[in-house]
Amino acid sequence: MRRVQTEVLVIGGGATGTGILRDLAMRGFDALLVEQRDLSHGTTGRYHGLLHSGGRYVVKDPKAAVECIEENRVLRRIMPHCIEDTDGFFVVTPWDDIDYVSKFVEGCRVAGIPCEEVPVAKALAEEPYLNRRISHCFRVPDGSADSFLSAEDTVASAREHGAVLLTYHRVDGLVREGDRVVGARCHDLVAGEDVEVAADLVVNASGAWAGRIAAGADIHFEVLAGKGTMVAVNHRMVNTVINRCKMPDDGDIIVPIHTVAVIGTTDERVGDPERFTIEPWEIRLMLEEGEKLVPGISQMRILRAWAGVRPLYQETSTDETRDVTRAYAMLDHGTRDGVEGMVTMTGGKWTTFRQMAEVCVDRVCVKLGVERPCRTHLEPLPQSAAHPRYHWLGARLATIEEEQTYGDLVCECELATRDQVVDSIVIGEAKTIDDVRRDVRVGMGPCQGGWCAARVTGLIHELRSPPVEESNVALRDFLQERWKGLLPILWGSQLRQERLDELVHLSVLNVPDLPGPTASRLAPVAYQAPEGEP
Amino acid sequence: MNGTVVVVGAGPAGLMAGLAAARAGARVRVLAKGWGLFHWHAGCVDVLGYDPVGGGRIVSLREGLAALIAARPDHPYGLVGVDGVLAALADVSTVCAAAGYPLVGSFDRNRLVLTGVGGARPTCLAPATMAAGDLDRGDPAVIVGFDRFLDLTAGLVAANLEHRGIPSRAVTLDLPSLRGRRFVNGPILAALFETESFRAEVAAVLSPKVGRAGRVGFPAVLGLEGAAAVVADLRRRLGVDVFEIPVAPPSIPGIRLHRILVAAIRAAGGRVHDGMEAVGSESAERRVTALLTESAARNLRTRADAFVLATGGILGGGIVGHEDGELTEVVFGLPVNGPGDRADWLRPDFTDPAGHPVYRSGLTVDAELRPVGDDGMPVFGNVHVAGGAIGGADAIAERSVDGIALATGRYAGTLAAATALDRSEEAAAS
Asked: Does any CB of chain A come closer than 8 Å to the CB of residue B401?
């Protein structure tokens, strides 16, 4: 068993945990983060990519709307390279209640969200595929965000300030001494060894897993997992985020992000954040609702479906101290449960992750008896400090044209070059092909890994020289993970594309025949059917 | 119309049908949207690699095929029988040998061909350019990759060979003549290998690294038209056996097979056209009279006495699966047999050895490969179906893609010629 010592241990490598890690490190804490898989493997990497203006919440949850617009401004300043400045439209379709419009406009005014009515003719000129039967359109500062890149670069910044990251370290339990949590028992999935992390304070930032983690210290609260299913369409038929101007509901948003457009989402309670299926009705609902915004969208090629689990904090105890808005929950287990040494930060949305981190680390300062102000909103991430520009759709192509690297593409769909993949493996320490996907988007385009999967396997093998069974199983894991995302949406052209991928991987290359196990211990578990179901 | 056969599709099924019909005396036109399966596949002739009934790898095709037909009479192979398969293999072997590109293999023992990730693909016939890579040979091998050619990583292939007990070494060539190129891909390497200067450059760098190995494996890019000569020349220069390893598409060895069959059809008097997507047909009295195609310039109507439908299944695009679970045939609107509920289409494991039910969907045909309706009667008397459009097999799961296509293609072409010639005799008589 390995032993590691740190001042503050952060559990969870999503937006919340990575944001907390950076904040801690910038305030001079000795901080270490453990994540059971890769950064943003959980909910952070499985959302639609909306940078909220707050417009969606102005009527339902005005406080959350204010948080969103404040953080929207901060994130545009500190990480523009992770954001595409798409703007957002709120449109009133024939299915929407016209009475909502005045509430929406007033809500934006109160929350301080810039909101401008766009004449329908102008909106249709900007977005010609938009439903021509809309009656009103409002422009707000929505955007789309690369949550993979943001988590990665947030950690890079944290590391510059001395923080430590341990991915593929699963927390098996918390270490408690009397009324105090003093660390966590972890398991390093790559090395296959146990690791005990001793810490002065533990920050539980494990999202939908937070209740389970805390239960390991005999602290009990409930975090419900709300599954949100999304589908990616093969075209950016809109270049502006399109929202229905109504109370937020299933399937009422289309987010253009990178080379695709994402329709989101459903909201279904699931018992286990790691085991759930995507139901056919969810896909149908997304397409039916998407059709109301962009007629014809359901006939377009669907690339992939996925689901993330929102953590929904459930109050079980009435007499407690917690800093909470309706958007997120900060639990101080010293005051709430009489157990010192741990705080939990859960819930929230990607757009407000930095603010959540600030609130959480403010509490950490109190717990550790120091006074150090937050600076995460003042200093841009290193990559943005160097090039303070928004991300734009053509950026990758422009770079490739400039560098004349067409011939070095590993993934032709997403224009990922060999150098990028090599960096992901060597510098980014990618353990699986799915990790490389999150880093550089290989396998996320129309062919869904038909060509790049074997190429990345070759590069991993070349750079790492692992036992060959590990390289082989990495390829099989990736193909199976990809399959899970494809299963709900395979029909039409995408079914045919999938068949071609089978011709390549099963017949030409015969991947199943390669030596090694069928699946590895690093294989993602999400999207497996719940126990007892087929 | 003088015994005209129109073949729709230019994959192995369509080309074999065109060749068989032309040789049987019909006027043949092969019309295709683009090129077919050969360009995407390994350039071998897979007949049956895995047993879809009992599972497990097929060693002897003679036994395995007979057992499959006995257990699954509705399998496409049941329509042509073992003899039909053997006849197609004999035809394709003869045509390839005559073109100076011999195929090797035996019906009594599937070969194991090394793949671009180091796997082993069971196949019946492989081009002679792949012969020395036979995995039943245990002698040491050198695996050659090219820097910037990402479809074969020599180290990965060699490591998998080592795992099989075959001593192997990886060499990745970083050649001066490739460094300045914008692209290093299969077609470019194939063109370069046709030049003596490139072969000399490769051999000069490689020779000192061959050591005691008895054979050297390259990605399957060793020339397009003159592959046999390229391999012979490299063998002479290196002093050891040289073999090709199939990689992801575009398939250079597949393109060779495609070109050889197209040339054979032309030599037999047939014509082959691409860029003509079949979009519909005209029919009267349960016979198709004309095929409607769309191309960039104009829409065309092509009349014929008999038709071969060789548009493939879901892979070829001949059959489309829809969101509501409906499966449709795109050219003639023929009824498709398959699972009607999308929930039943696919299994949870990508590599499930049993395959996926939706891929077994396809047309139901009678003994003369004519598509039949629910009443069991032919929908059209002069349409014969070949290849992936015929239901009853997940050909990728069982590794039978080429065999089914060639065997049913040959039979469909022969039948279509007979139908067309009968028809033209009738026309002449009246």
From this structure: yes
